[in-house]
Here is the input.
Amino acid sequence: MRSRLEQYFRLADLQTSWRTEMLAGLTTFVTMAYIVFVNPAILSQTGMPVAAVTIATCLCAGVGSILMGVLANYPLALAPGMGLNAYFTYTVVKGMGVPWQTALGAVFLSGIIFLLLTVGGLRQKLVGGIPHQLHASLAGGIGLFIAFIGLRNSGIIVPSAATTVTLGNMHAPGVLLALFGVVLIAVLQVFQVRASMLIGVLTTTLLGVLCGQVHWHPTFVSVTAIRATAFHLDLRGALRMNALEIIFVFLFVDLFDNIGTLVAVTERAGLISADHTIPRLNRIFFADAASTVFGSLAGTSTVTSYIESAAGVAAGGRSGVTAITTGVLFLISMFVAPVVGAIPDFATAPALILVGALMVASAARIDWNDPRVAVPSFLTIITVPLTYSIATGLSFGIISFALIEVATGRAERKHWMLYTLALLFSLRFVYLSAG
Here is the structure.
């Protein structure tokens, strides 16, 4: 039985092991466990019960990640998407006055459309339309994005009215603990310790406990609480109110954020084929779309792949066992959610910062001497972190790449999907400006 599982997950081909994959899954879980508390905090402002959304979040992250691991055999973890949950709450429900039940109906419809686009092969063609020359730049841009999130969460970087961002208080305990974590993980990586990320996070958390910097307020959450949101979606309401605009945003943002995450993580893991294609792409998209449908039924916003999966990849994760491990831990967290909340930002931030450093290394493969590649690559790298959007960075890269190809007379009919993507992204900017 074990040998069959090893063959199915291709552990030997991917040069990995059960131990490495499970440690990688644990690392991914630790870096994205914040979603168990952040997602309910955001969605509860729509009137949805916090306890119900907490259980729905854990359940959807668990089922989605396991589905991705079993079906597609990739180390990609899923959970309700940040940004999409904010759009769900602040724009759709609070801004438009749409009941949360109706908004869940819109999420369900967007998931069904995702499934149809996947079956029809359109999502796969969209990924195929992304120039392979931008794969490394997208990974590099997301690396800066992840590092920036880590620096912000730790307090090393703080907002500034004069310069947008500036150096934080270097005497603050949380900042000092985060810097300790960065140094510890870096030293462990020098000694090629595979579990460096996990050891760094847990050690920094323990040190924070000893220094009195971990403020943990456990609260009991019953699994049965999910009954307050499960199957409460209002499909008729979503169809009756002509929620085309809402469905479009859920669809578009998730589509291109997911594509960006997918390309970046598979690029970093070395899972992209020699012909620049991603194997089993239809299975990846099916798992993603099915998770969104499941999420709407359980009572949460759009479920998507998480860029924190790169932390597991950096820890050696290469197969679906990583995602399955993360998923199982999310399911367990339904019963021990308060314990998950004990992991502070200053402990996970060092892992994000150094994962960012590892991903930025992809930029070394860009041909910086060729302006046709260098300019779109640079725009991709710089706009992902500065706009706080993977989709926007990808937009700049593809549009500029397509414009340069057309302006220099290098456009070819066989690359029609590239120009279709450029047009779609251009329309996205027109739509955002109009909004």
About this structure: The beta strands are 78-80, 157-160, 164-167, 303-305. The CA atoms of residues 89 and 95 lie 8 Å apart. The chain has 20 helices and four strands.
